Amino acid sequence: MSLVHTTQLRLNILLERLQGLDFTRANQQPSELGLDAKEVFIPSPSGGKHLRRVLADLDIRPVDSVLDIGCAKGSAMRDLLRQPFARVDGIELSPELAAIARRNFAKLGEARAGVHCADARSFKHYGDYAFFYLYNPFPPAILDQVLQQLVPQTPVGAERIVIYNNPTGHDVMLRHGFHALRRYPDFWGHGIQVYGNRPQSGRLRAA
Predict the structure, then answer these.
(1) Alpha helix (H) ranges present in 20-162?
(2) Cα atoms found within 13 Å of the Cα of residue 6, Cβ hemisphere only
(3) 137 lies in a domain?
(4) How many Cβ atoms sit within 10 Å of the Cβ of residue 6?
(5) Are 73 and 23 in contact (CB under 8 A)?
(6) pLDDT digit string (tens) for 91-143?
(7) 79 part of a folded domain
(8) What pLDDT does residue 166 have?
(9) Residue 9: which CATH number?
(10) Is residue 44 part of a domain?
(11) Which of 38, 100, 110, 164 has the smallest number of Cβ neighbours within 10 A?
(12) φ, ψ for residue 3 (rounded to 5)?
């Protein structure tokens, strides 16, 4: 990590502490959270200017809702709440991290935010969301199981957009019928890929 990145993270942590928040402070290893390291990756904050740049190119409407899959403490959700979504929800497997995220949004008074403590592989409400966000929360094999739930729950004819930060499961996304629409830079250098279930999206503005 560069000195600039380290300084920025430390500054964010300090500012959050002064506000009684905890979005950026380093998370525990999966085993320390009672999770299987073969099924989940160490959660990291992923909100910030790079995600906001992606969101600026999307046609987000007040009737739309978004789900952060593997939301951890809610860092990305905080930026999603800057958009006119009707709901900004997260799903998080760790009860400890889900509780921190809930406290963060309660402190901020964000009535549009909600956090489900659940396994993404058995979540039954994917059909409620038009947009999804992931920051590489699990290996491609788990993503495959998640998409086996998500895709069939999509209403017939409905457009779905997935914002995938550090898209290690790119091939899995393609196998489940998603199209790679546009790629953006991110904080860590992994890239953010926008996918859609249509080859050309009506929700992604012209570059």
Answers:
(1) 49-56, 75-80, 95-108, 140-153
(2) 3
(3) yes
(4) 10
(5) yes
(6) 999 999 999 999 999 999 999 999 999 999 999 999 999 999 999 999 999 99
(7) yes
(8) 96
(9) 3.40.50.150
(10) yes
(11) 38
(12) -60, -35
Closest CA to 159 of 124, 199, 192, 125: 199
The structural domain count of the chain equals 1
Per-residue pLDDT tens over the stretch 34-49: 888 889 998 778 888 9
AA identity, residue 37: A
Among 54, 56, 52, 115, which residue's Cα sits nearest to residue 88? 115
Distance, in Å, from the CA atom of 165 to the CA atom of 11, rounded to the nearest integer, reads 23
Cα within 13 Å of Cα(133), Cβ side: 28
Residue that is written with structure tokens 């091939």 in the block: 171
Tokens of 44: 């990291």
Its domain, for residue 25, covers: 3-196
Smallest Cα–Cα separation from 136: which of 77, 183, 190, 90? 190
Please indicate, yes or no, if residue 207 is contained in any of the structural domains: no
Phi, psi for residue 47 in degrees, rounded to 5: -75, 175
Tokens of 130: 């038009």
Beta-sheet pairing, 131-135 with 65-69: parallel
User: Which pLDDT band holds residue 194 (cuts at 50, 70, 90)?
Assistant: very high
